User: Fold this.
Amino acid sequence: HLTAERLLRVTMTAIQNTPKLLECDRTSLFSAVMTCAQLGLEPDGVLGQAYLIPFGKRVQFVPGYKGLLSLARNSGDVVSISAHEVCANDHFDYAFGLAERLEHKPASDRGDITHFWALARFKDGGYHFDVMTRSEVDAIRDGSPNGRASSSPWKSHYVEMGRKTAIRRIVKYLPLSVQKAMAL
Assistant:
């Protein structure tokens, strides 16, 4: 976990980078910082572990996908997590059910993005994956407060945001310690 001194420094940096945090209710700010401490995630916005985001007059703790990956890996049960975009010319085949499978071979001339997928492999040899269509990912983008804004990371880093969205979808099925999962 974070030391109190480190958490204080990182929080002060987050406040300097986002002065609107000081215009928010202090209780919500303290609560968001305490959640970071409980989970051991730094709210610096640089490492992508966690974010303190002002929504109106309240501060919202938002775990970054890198923070969620850290929590899953720290469980000791997750060996690897990966996510990729699928394009129109790629070989892509998947099935859910009792004979689950995921097969993706990127083409050299890939074409437009059609899907995103994320997969987690467990220490016991099991795995969990999910597949999202581009329209599903776009619906999540469009539902976010700044999804279509010109300064949105969706504009400049669409592939990374799509991968992150697929990872967020599988995280709820990954083993996290009970204490950390309860905090989330």
